[in-house]
Design brief:
It is a single chain. With 844 residues, the protein is α+β, with helices and mostly antiparallel strands. The chain folds into four domains: 1-30 and 251-419, no CATH class; 57-247, no CATH class; 420-510 and 707-844, no CATH class; 538-675, no CATH class. It has 28 helices and 20 strands. The protein has a six-stranded mixed barrel. The protein has a six-stranded mixed β-barrel with strand order 12-13-18-15-17-16. Strand 2 and strand 3 (103-113) form a beta hairpin. Helix 3 (31-59) packs antiparallel against helix 14 (350-372).
């Protein structure tokens, strides 16, 4: 076939001049989707670039060695053998006390010795405090705590049994994010004063970190390979600048992949608008195409004319989206600042822009082909038939190929983001199911309206309702676009409420809402007496013994982990186990396999223990396996007698490993106590009393935890809502485009109504009712699907009651309905300004 490309290009340009505004509307649907993806791609490139340049300041050193156990002689010897500058840090959770206003709070204490950080700095106010506090009885306090307790530089802060002077406000530390500061605000103290605080006692969970800075000429890779076997033998962890770069990059790649999928949903939503708009456009062009065929244009040439036309407009839309994405990317660091451990520089990424333009071209053409492919079947006889029957787009078997290509494209894009074919298949199936479900709901709605049409309604109401199923109706497109966007945002609101309600249930009534831990055996009775003095109940007092796993079925850690027939977590042997003993199970656990034995009388036999079922299965530990524990120097052989299903959501002391009575009573131990405080005032009084009398005892106030989680969920929700906004705005743009396109389809009908005597007011009412039905039904469908999906999540995933708050959802419903009606009316005003004589001039 002689395509004569220059002639095809000229024909495409000539035909588009009449319809330029309509074609721009078609492609405007994907502008926001392309903008979202370009912004996210640019974010990903900038993140990687910033991680590469700032990895050293994120770690703060060339090498970090750490563990939650004091260093053995071998580790001490290794540390001493390493050259270069060294710093030491001991970190743990403990209560702090502000004497100025009697404020108490659980904080992360970091006892520091040396000049760490070697790269970057402890950003403080005043700036000199980051250095000066190290040699004095002074502390740096996270700005979150300073604001919460209205403290100032120069005030006092009590940590354990030592009262420090606040030298400065800590604004930023290596690797610290805004979220981390909210969960566990840091307090830096000089390591030389740690012993005086009396906080480092038996049972205290302390992380030991050693930082090193080497000569710039030092080759880190050979050094790490040399010391790695010695570190692994002692179960010590290490990090280098390179590993920090890889770990941070991996974390944020996951973030950008998730955000890319969210942006891709917005793009797919826009593609629904493209497909629908092109379908209407081609239906308008059937007679023009038939005339071209009569003049000798071949079917393939006609197809190429409109393909070139759509490709050109698609290119324009993709470029606009890419430019908008480059602008939006400048604001993403503000949205994500609480999640980033560094300040993100925003440079223009031409690679991201190029990807966005190519993606826009592919996806606009792919979805437009659903209608363009039928041009090949348009016969010249359509011109003759047009006088007595409406031309129809012939069904084409090649459409199934286009559908297959679309699904393949969705799968391919998802696979490139997730790198796992199972997740790509799941996402593709999920998106397809959501679209088909909403499309099915739209089809059902049209059938129900037609089947049960309310003939008793007034004329205007009947006209507005009938427009839902008449030719050129927008029911399907709006149900999918607005319904999917509404479903997305409402699901977010429901899930956020489920998580918070689940935590609130744990603090209701007489459930424990205050946990005291690190209670030494000699302090146990005194703490219990203090609880009773405050007129609060002792709901649970639990002894805890720390130990390490030495052997599994007679195999040491090295031998067991080398066994390739089982996939075991390396931390199975390196972790510190905190276990308890009792003769009965509590309400949050039940035996699912084996037999629970609550008491041991024969100390010469292996001790029967119970493991949490998930932990045992993940590490291939079976009933009857033997585990040898090192209980602070004493070897104890045990046998797995049962598995327990543990409800970790309950406010109880739950354990991976449970011992029976009669074995660990004389082992070194500390205690955890659970109580219930009736209100915030009682909580404040109790915390002050505990900190003053037992400074080493730490408390977790679940009311405060709830506040922190609420703050975190708000921040995360803002990020997700920001991305979901692309879907909502895309849905609205699809709505606007659909309404504007339908305006051309409604001209003849509206003018005929006016010719028959209908007033402007009546036509406006009919239009308002049509879009009111569309907006409310689309929004209601989205909310119903979100409710069903959220109930399933609550029931099956979170295993909690679903008690949705419908007020914010009702607001979303009203906003969607009002916007739909408003846009419909605004776009109908142009129709009403036309003369009734225009019905005679219509070329449709």
């Amino acid at each position: 076939m002689n395509t004569n490309f220059s002639w095809l290009l000229k024909m495409a340009w000539r035909d588009s001049r009449r319809n330029y505004s309509r074609l721009l509307l078609f492609i405007s649907s994907i502008v926001l989707g392309i903008a979202a993806l370009v912004a996210i791609y640019s974010l990903g490139y900038n993140l990687q670039q910033n991680i590469d340049t700032q990895a050293a300041s994120l770690l703060g050193a060339d090498l970090e060695i750490s563990d939650n156990q004091p260093p053995s002689k071998k580790i001490t010897g290794l540390i001493d053998s390493l050259k270069g500058q060294q710093s030491k840090e001991l970190s743990f959770a403990s209560m702090i006390y502000f004497p100025k206003n009697s404020g108490t709070r659980l904080a992360q204490i970091r006892a520091l010795e040396g000049d760490f950080p070697y790269y970057g700095e402890l950003e403080t106010e005043p700036a000199t405090a980051g250095k000066s506090f190290r040699t004095k009885k002074e502390v740096l306090v996270d700005q979150t705590l300073m604001l919460q307790y209205q403290a100032k530089v120069g005030d006092s802060l009590k940590v354990g049994e030592v009262t420090f002077l606040i030298a400065g406000i800590l604004k930023k530390a290596p690797g610290q994010t805004g979220i981390a500061a909210t969960v566990a605000p840091s307090v830096y103290i000089p390591l030389s004063y740690l012993k005086q605080t009396n906080l480092a006692q038996k049972g205290s969970r302390i992380v030991y970190r050693y930082y090193f800075k080497f000569d710039p000429k030092t080759q880190m890779e050979p050094l790490v390979k040399k010391i790695e076997p010695r570190l692994e033998a002692e179960d010590y962890n290490y990090r280098t600048v390179q590993s920090q770069k890889e770990d941070t990059g991996r974390s944020f790649r996951d973030l950008t992949r998730f955000l890319s999928l969210v942006g891709f949903i917005a793009l797919l939503l826009g593609c629904v608008g493209v497909a629908s708009s092109i379908h209407i456009y081609i239906k308008e062009k059937l007679n023009s195409i038939a005339i071209l065929r009569c003049l000798g244009v071949k079917a393939g040439q006609a197809f190429l004319i409109y393909l070139i036309q759509i490709s050109g407009i698609g290119l324009i839309g993709s470029i606009l989206g890419a430019v908008l994405g480059a602008v939006i990317q400048q604001f993403l660091p503000v949205v994500l600042k609480d999640f980033l451990p560094f300040e993100l520089a925003t440079d223009l990424s031409f690679s991201a822009i190029g990807q966005g333009i190519v993606l826009g071209l592919i996806i606009s053409n792919l979805f437009a082909l659903l209608s363009l492919i039928s041009i090949r079947k348009i016969s010249p006889l359509n011109v003759l038939r047009a006088s007595y029957e409406q031309a129809q787009i012939t069904k084409d078997p090649y459409k199934w190929l286009i559908y297959a290509l679309i699904l393949l494209f969705v799968f391919g894009f998802t696979w490139l983001q997730m790198k796992r074919w199972t997740e790509a298949v799941a996402f593709t199936v999920g998106v397809t199911f959501a679209f088909l479900l909403l499309l099915g709901m739209a089809t059902l709605l049209m059938w129900l309206v037609r089947r049960f049409f309310p003939t008793s309604w007034g004329y205007l109401g009947r006209q507005g309702l009938a427009n839902l199923y008449r030719p050129n109706n927008q029911t399907a497109i709006l149900m999918v676009s607005i319904g999917l966007g509404t479903m997305f945002i409402c699901t977010l609101l429901f899930v956020q409420a489920i998580l918070l309600d689940r935590i609130k249930l744990s603090t209701d009534g007489d459930q424990p809402n205050m946990v005291l831990f690190d209670i030494q055996t000699g302090q146990k009775q005194g703490v219990m007496n203090l609880v009773k003095q405050q007129k609060m109940p002792v709901l649970q007092s639990v002894p805890i013994v720390t130990m390490r796993l030495e052997q599994l079925n007679g195999q040491t850690s090295t031998e067991a982990l080398k066994d390739t027939t089982n996939k075991r977590w390396r931390g199975l042997f390196s972790r510190e186990y905190r276990v308890t003993f009792r003769d009965s199970l509590i309400s949050t656990e039940k035996v699912v396999k084996g037999t629970w034995k609550g008491e041991v009388k024969d100390l010469n036999a292996a001790v029967p223990i119970s493991l949490e079922d998930g932990y045992a299965e993940r590490n291939s530990i079976k009933i009857g396996d033997t585990l040898t524990f090192n209980v602070q120097g004493t070897m104890l052989t045990t046998v797995v007698a049962s598995y327990r299903d543990v409800d970790w959501a309950g406010v109880q002391t739950n354990f991976l490993v449970l011992f029976p009575k009669g074995v660990l009573e004389d082992a070194p131990q500390f205690h955890v106590l659970l109580t219930h405080v009736p209100n915030n005032e009682a909580s404040a009084r109790f915390q002050q009393a505990v900190v003053q009398q037992f400074p080493n005892v730490s408390l977790i106030d679940l009311g405060l935890i709830l506040t922190v989680l609420d703050d975190i969920s708000t921040k995360i929700g803002f990020v997700i809502r920001f991305m979901a906004g692309f879907s909502i705005l895309t849905g609205l743009i699809v709505l606007i485009a659909s309404v504007l396109i339908s305006k051309y389809q409604r001209i003849q009908e509206s003018v005929l109504l006016r010719t028959l005597g209908a007033s402007r007011r009546q036509i406006l009412i009919i239009t308002a009712l049509e879009y009111f039905f569309l907006g409310t039904l689309a929004a209601a469908t989205g909310i119903l699907l979100a409710t069903a999906g959220s109930w399933a999540l609550a029931h099956y995933s979170f295993e909690t009651a679903f008690n949705p708050q419908f007020l914010p959802v009702f607001v979303v419903f009203l906003v969607v309905a009002v916007i739909t009606v408003f846009i419909g009316l605004v776009n109908s005003l142009g129709i009403l300004s036309r003369s009734p004589l225009e019905v005679l001039r219509q070329d449709v």
